[in-house]
Write a structure and sequence with these properties.
The complex is a heterodimer of chains A (115) and B (107).
Chain A lengths: L2 E5 L2 E3 L5 E8 L8 E6 L5 E7 L6 E3 L7 E6 L4 E6 L8 E7 L10 E5 L2
Chain B lengths: L3 E4 L2 E4 L5 E7 L7 E6 L6 E5 L3 E2 L7 E6 L2 E6 L9 E6 L6 E2 L3 E5 L1
Parallel strand pairs in B: 2-11
Antiparallel strand pairs in B: 1-3, 3-8, 4-5, 4-9, 5-6, 7-8, 9-10, 9-11
The chains are: A mainly beta (115), B mainly beta (107).
């Protein structure tokens, strides 16, 4: 069974940084691209970033490009999202999801950016 | 970026109804559309992949179809457990883009 467990969220002040993690199990993590998606409170889904299985291909939404960095450690079955220069509009529930087609999702981790 | 225009944004439904939700893509995305169900406080669950394929474990009352740039999710004979939010996704190009979502509410 595919399991994705996000962590690292919390309350952070504007302009500060935060790093999210997503630990994967139940599939061969190193064979699959991975994504981060977010959902602001009461809003729809917004794709944030993608990283290919070997980290060769990385894509970002324009809203986070230059501020967020996606990475992975295949030895640890872990996906990361380093978030810097955080803004209030980054407040959201952040999900990790598998593959180029976002097949399976974690339960999400909340990030709140507020002073 | 490809826009996925989803309609309706909300729908008042009754048990046993046949419900159809549609996404229109702003440019060709081929078969690369998924549909997700999201219940309150839960993460999205893939229901349909590649526009018309039922994901594992999804009841057969759910179906997906395509007509040109219009993609539809149909729920036949709606059950109470189907009351949720539904989202379409195009994964033909980056950035991936979602429709705005459809909220189903019981009358």
């Amino acid at each position: 069974e595919v399991q994705l467990v996000e962590s690292g969220g919390g309350l952070v002040q504007p302009g500060r940084s935060l790093k999210l993690s997503c630990v994967a199990s139940g599939f061969t993590f190193s064979n699959y691209g991975m994504n981060w998606i977010r959902q602001a409170p009461g809003k729809g889904l917004e794709w944030v970033a993608y990283i290919s299985s070997g980290s060769s291909y990385i894509y970002y939404a324009e809203t986070v490009k230059g501020r967020f960095t996606i990475s992975r450690d295949n030895a640890k079955n872990t996906l990361y999202l380093q978030m810097t220069s955080l803004r209030s509009e980054d407040t959201a529930l952040y999900y990790c999801a598998t593959s180029y087609s976002l097949d399976y999702w974690g339960q999400g981790v909340m990030v709140t950016v507020s002073s | 970026d490809i826009q996925m225009t989803q309609s309706p944004s909300s729908m008042s439904v009754s048990l046993g109804d046949t419900v159809t939700i549609t996404c229109r893509a702003s440019q060709d995305v081929g078969i690369y559309v998924n549909w997700f169900q999201q219940k309150p406080g839960k993460s999205p669950r893939r229901m349909i992949y590649r526009a018309t394929n039922l994901a594992d474990g999804v009841p057969s009352r759910f179906s997906g179809s395509r007509s040109g740039s219009d993609y539809s999710l149909t729920i036949s004979s709606l059950e109470s457990e189907d009351v949720a939010d539904y989202h379409c996704l195009q994964y033909d190009e980056y950035p991936r883009t979602f429709g705005g979502g459809t909220k189903l509410e019981l009358k």
